[in-house]
Amino acid sequence: MPRCARPPLPSVCSTGSPLSEDGFRWVYQAMKPDVHLASISGGTDLCGCFVGGDPTRPVFAGEIQGPGLGMDVGVFDSEGKLPPQEPFGREIKSTEKAIRRYTGQIAYTNKRILEAVDRILKDEEEPPVIILQGDHGFRRLPPDHPAQQRVVSSILNAYYLPPTAGELPGPSISPVNSFRLVFNGYLGGRFGYLPDESYYSPPGGKTGVFLRIEH
Length: 215
Hints:
The chain has three domains: about 1-75, no CATH class; about 75-125, no CATH class; about 125-215, no CATH class. By secondary structure, the protein is an alpha+beta fold. The chain starts with 10 loop residues before the first strand and ends with a strand. It has helices at about 20-30, 95-125, 150-155, 180-185, and strands at about 10-15, 35-45, 50, 65, 130-135, 155-160, 195-200, 210-215. The longest helix has 29 residues, at about 95-125. The strands form three sheets. A four-stranded mixed sheet has the order 1-2-3-4. It has a two-stranded antiparallel sheet with strand order 5-6. A two-stranded antiparallel sheet has the order 7-8. Helix content is about 25%, strand content about 15%.
């Protein structure tokens, strides 16, 4: 890939989750060796970041530097408690520990989601449309793990749809078609459906090269 022009740019932000280690290397090699590269992660609901960059601290490839100003950020366990947290800037090297932390928080989050859904169904006079979707699966498996692609691309994708003459989602539906289905079934839309497939950039691979994963 050709090198980019070097603008007078002090910072570059990658959003959603930590940029991969390969992505970090590419930015520093192809863009600017002295740029402040910051991975940031939302929330959309507060129009800001829970965690993000800090120009006064060192940057570690594949990691987010720390919490946003005023943010008390942690990982819940399965009971909704906050166990001792890993300091920012110290990566969790143990895959077993990472999986335990991940599944504990998922168990607690799922419990709270079910409570919220029950409350919505009880309180709403009109039957609602409810879509529960993740954005990606577990990312801490070793790069050469045989299930890496399947696990990363597997998400929660659940629908609660009121009775309608429209079609129901099939078992292979992916988020690219979720709202097309809703618009067609409930709002008179006539949107065509797109292929249900995902694209995966393997760790250690060439930046910009993606593998197609069919659902």
